[in-house]
Amino acid sequence: MPKDVITEADEQQIVAAIAEAEKNTSGEIRVHIENNCKGKVLDRATEVFAELHMHETQGRNGVLFYVALLDHQFAILGDAGINAIVPEHFWEDVTAKVISHFKEKRYAQGLSEGILMAGEQLQVHFPYNQKGDINELKDDISFGE
Known about the structure:
The chain is built from 5 helices and 4 strands. By secondary structure, the protein is an alpha/beta fold.
């Protein structure tokens, strides 16, 4: 189980990073953690993105952080709205930051820093709208097998 690696304190740190990153944006960030990646990592991340209904956000500005712990696989998947406007190499830079922590088994730290980086871009391009902006997706971590 991924929960054998991700402690409750880790989970709280990651969820707090999601809340912080989403505080000033209409963008939505989710984290999915499982042990094994079934198939290619981007294909699996795309499946999870759909399963979590992340493509249904109003601004098409959802971002998924996908982790397969035992297979050492990681991907960030942004929806069409955010992918169209982030700077070139942005996702690669976030991935490099996250992976640098993963190599030291600092999963929560890596995810938290990556989430905050994504949140900064979301704030620039999808600012929080006080009128009618709702949290469209849960902030908790979803876990697979």
